[in-house]
Design a protein that fits this description.
By secondary structure, the chain is α+β, with helices and mostly antiparallel strands. It has 1 helix and 2 strands, in the order ββα.
Amino acid sequence: MPVSYGSFARNQQDSASDIDVLVVGNPKGDALAEEMRKWRAKRVPRQFL
């Protein structure tokens, strides 16, 4: 399961910010890719894609 942290998670990002993501567990590649797609769709504003 991906979890965000840092300035992006606190909604304090600026133009120099990156997106910090911690992956909990040991997911297989396909499962991780699917969870990251879901996470990104919910949490990452379009301008950051």
